[in-house]
Amino acid sequence: MTAELPAYDPAYDDEAPPPQDEGPWLRPIAWWVATVFLGGFAIFEGVTNGVLTIIAALLFFALPDAATRFGGVGPGHRWYGAVHRVWIPLVIVIGYSLGPIVFPPIFTAGLAWLARIALDRALGRGYGAA
Known about the structure:
Layout lengths: L25 H24 L1 H19 L8 H6 L3 H12 L5 H19 L8
Helix pairs in contact: 1-2, 1-5, 2-5, 4-5
């Protein structure tokens, strides 16, 4: 009787080349798509819901930049990381969508903030840029 050898698995081979990245272009394109979608959605919400919603969208679109320029917050500071992370505005958008509050400027502000983060990452800037 002969024993059969197990199938070759490159994950256990020390000599196997590392897995290749999908390409340096895939992540920025995904961020551009997110920027266009979120920005368009924020504009739609602003036009649909009035001036206060437009003001909230503009303020929160500028929030990461304002924190960096006027707040003295630079890379490495905890507030810099907070305003450049996707999770905080994402929680705002999802929380508004699922919650009982009916105040459209909150939702639009979250969309604009997400659009700004996506734009920064599409351009190769910001926290955790592509």
